[in-house]
Amino acid sequence: MESAILLISCPDRKGIVKEIAGFIANNEGNILHFDQHIDTHKGVFFARVEWDIADFRVPKEEIENSFKPIAERFFMDYSLHFSSELQKVAIFVSKQEHCFYDLMQRFHSGELNGEVKLVISNHEDMKPLADFFGVPYYHIPKNRENKGEAEAKELKLLETHGIDLIILARYMQILSKDFVDRFRNRIINIHHSFLPAFPGAKPYHRAYERGVKIIGATSHYVTEVLDEGPIIEQDIIRVSHRDSLEDFIRKGKDIERLVLARAVKWHLERKVLVYDNRTVVFD
Amino acid sequence: MESAILLISCPDRKGIVKEIAGFIANNEGNILHFDQHIDTHKGVFFARVEWDIADFRVPKEEIENSFKPIAERFFMDYSLHFSSELQKVAIFVSKQEHCFYDLMQRFHSGELNGEVKLVISNHEDMKPLADFFGVPYYHIPKNRENKGEAEAKELKLLETHGIDLIILARYMQILSKDFVDRFRNRIINIHHSFLPAFPGAKPYHRAYERGVKIIGATSHYVTEVLDEGPIIEQDIIRVSHRDSLEDFIRKGKDIERLVLARAVKWHLERKVLVYDNRTVVFD
Amino acid sequence: MESAILLISCPDRKGIVKEIAGFIANNEGNILHFDQHIDTHKGVFFARVEWDIADFRVPKEEIENSFKPIAERFFMDYSLHFSSELQKVAIFVSKQEHCFYDLMQRFHSGELNGEVKLVISNHEDMKPLADFFGVPYYHIPKNRENKGEAEAKELKLLETHGIDLIILARYMQILSKDFVDRFRNRIINIHHSFLPAFPGAKPYHRAYERGVKIIGATSHYVTEVLDEGPIIEQDIIRVSHRDSLEDFIRKGKDIERLVLARAVKWHLERKVLVYDNRTVVFD
Amino acid sequence: MESAILLISCPDRKGIVKEIAGFIANNEGNILHFDQHIDTHKGVFFARVEWDIADFRVPKEEIENSFKPIAERFFMDYSLHFSSELQKVAIFVSKQEHCFYDLMQRFHSGELNGEVKLVISNHEDMKPLADFFGVPYYHIPKNRENKGEAEAKELKLLETHGIDLIILARYMQILSKDFVDRFRNRIINIHHSFLPAFPGAKPYHRAYERGVKIIGATSHYVTEVLDEGPIIEQDIIRVSHRDSLEDFIRKGKDIERLVLARAVKWHLERKVLVYDNRTVVFD
Questions:
Q1: What subunits make at least 3 CB pairs under 8 angstroms with B?
Q2: Domain that holds residue C114
Q3: Is residue A144 predicted with pLDDT exceeding 90?
Q4: How far apart (Å, rounded) are the C-alpha atoms in residues A4 and A20?
Q5: Tens digit of each residue's pLDDT (9 = 90 or more) over C231-243
Q6: Partners for A (CB, 8 Å, 3+ pairs)?
Q7: Residue C208 is part of a domain; what is its CATH number?
């Protein structure tokens, strides 16, 4: 079954739901999901509507045009997607394997619905696993001097492969503002702390030092400000005095994996809307 | 601000959302929440729609009539409520205080939106607390012989006070089928296990004996089959070999309180739909 | 059954467990709990030992003296307690009732093992509940000018009643360094965030603004640095875009209650050791 | 650093800790962990003691003999292990990949401390991954007729490789009593429900049907009674009406992975004691 997905945000006012639902019903579409949210403080309406287009009277390629008058009337920010479109994904890794390995298994099993077109890394360590899954692996070393050059190479590869989504699977390099701007709300990072606690480097060390009883992981879209992008998902695990710093790091890996995988899944299923440096997630 | 709330379930088909949203928009209502769910296996549509009726053109008392044609066309099961209507609540308790005390504090602070009209107990222990909160307390002892008679007294009191919802706050008595029928989906119980594990008596003892690593609590609507009614909410807490049976019971109280309070809150806010011995909770 | 409890910390070296266990066994004591922990990075040994003193050959009042040679040999920081000693507790409250109500119920039901000797508040709101439980209530208003004077009154009351532990049950006033010094590691506060995220005022507002997906609460000993004392316990609850700021605050109350109650329970049961601004909790 | 580990259970009585600690201290051992537990209802003492044997006066191969007199005096069930001994592991899989992939990555990264000597499966699907990690893969089909013969083959392989621990990573076959007896408390299974809810087949289907709000996974030692062996670890994840049966299954995989990995880790680190169909886990 193929479905169309509309993601919408606009100023809230009367009649929006009626118009959207009318557009679908009048054209013989069958709604599968209608998720809606209103930020009453800011007066903003959000929706994710998914409908079966088997009997839809408007041909697929004309839906966008056909919906435009409604979108304009309500000053909507919107995007239209189809369940049949597989997003093209690039994974950036460093030396840590746990998130990368976990993601590859999930893509392989079909749990994550997308095509991993390439893997980029500043190290060679993860190449064998990429090979195992038959995904091209590009080793692009990075240091202070060659950063611009390296990013240029990366951007070229991303362009060549028509990449829709970049996943930083514990990629320990900071991307330039320029790079980020090219993939606004399309770069997902996993930070190994419960943000905004412990942004930046060595969060487990600092969590251990502070004596917290819970550690966390945070998946967010990357912005030009380090670890301050819109949060997509967070989760936690308990620790105690019995846990050493090494235990913090090991336990943390389990939640890093899960939190990153959930964020990627929701993004690929077009369930995330970004607004005001926050996310609406219609999970 | 006063709002109207429609709870709807009906066979799924095209155009339902359009009709509901049209009814509201055409009469100048402003939708606050539109929660919808489709059980695709069974082909059933569920919705909870809440809208501001400040400018609604249909007078409050005529809304139901005015909506009826739509309801009939789509074979809807539906009910209409208003945020201004306070539900009348009866709490049944036995000797255990934790849930009762917790509920009274939540009603008192306004977190739970309803009026506790009376407390019924087969013991006298909880009377002082009911007195403190100024709620009438009826001591109706129960044993095998007088059960019918006792229930008759209870039903009379419930009728006199126009009770909408009964909360069994660790009330250790089984209600008759007749009694339950009179308050179908309006009696909320808290069971001290993660159902369907350990239904019936002494669940903590059995959980301890089995050596589980997690204990739970379950809030559900009461049906004629013990501990098998539709589940509204569940939660859990970790235990270990370090926990004695007494620790299981003590830790369990914390989740019993929370799970019961959440279920009651959602019920009072008209967020629960029952279908096929399961619940849809638009939390 | 009466038991003795030894809390010990000292530089780690060979033979400590043998000496402690030998002291107990040689005097016919029966160990109930022997919890031990070694911070290998810092080379510190911690233990909590509890034993039945029914047949103990050393009379209760001589145990401390009798143990002293061992303590000195190993340079132990230690304290000796008896399960029969009820700690005297003062609760400080402001206008928020949820933690206060919860604590009173737990002390009343015997779940928390201590005597609430008095309640101190800068407001009168909580007096009726204190009255209900028969606990003296002292209304001591506080403002910028009278703070020193107010604290003097409080300290006097605490001294008169021989208070062992102060619980700040959402008491929204900052205590002076002098005050804190008098009750080092004996003042437990509940902070309504997952520290070190959002220290200081209005943490829920800031969590909402940041768009976090999880909120938390932290119970810690009060030190002169605001919200930076040793953490005893933390817990969290999930939130989503569906939750308003008011929902954050309401959901947070449930974890504030639980986290504070657990920290108080562990403290009263002599299960908490403080070291290096962190805690070892032998739960 | 090499350490020795003693796992002990015996009738509780005075002096046990003193004797164990004395044995270690008198021979110049340095205790790293001393975990102890008493089941007061049944009067049983449990301990796990780990000590650095760098300076231990008793040679490694004589420790057991040297400890025996103490063990006999206290009627101890005990076993002695060394951190340097790598346990030999066999993994049994069927067609589902998630637990198998996860385990292989954890063994590969060193998080799980053991040697995977072989993989046995009734299907060929998982062979490529076993090959990738260089682990021999044995395809032993099973059906009602050949079960005895197939198990004989398996037992032979396990013997040849000197296997210490069998992990059933979603291996969907029931082992015979004979087989289980040969590996008492050394076969770890993952069951995809929160036992004792939904033992047996298709637990997610039944959980979905029952309308639970939480699903779980349980790792346990295999006994001759299906899904009734001693529980090592359990964990849960929330579900709602929004989750389809497929979502239950997908979400469940995440906790199956984690729960199985934790149980295996604790077993390999000699942290699990079995008693009375329950476990003491010194995590």
A1: A, C, D
A2: 87-281
A3: no
A4: 13
A5: 999 999 999 999 9
A6: B, C, D
A7: 3.40.50.170
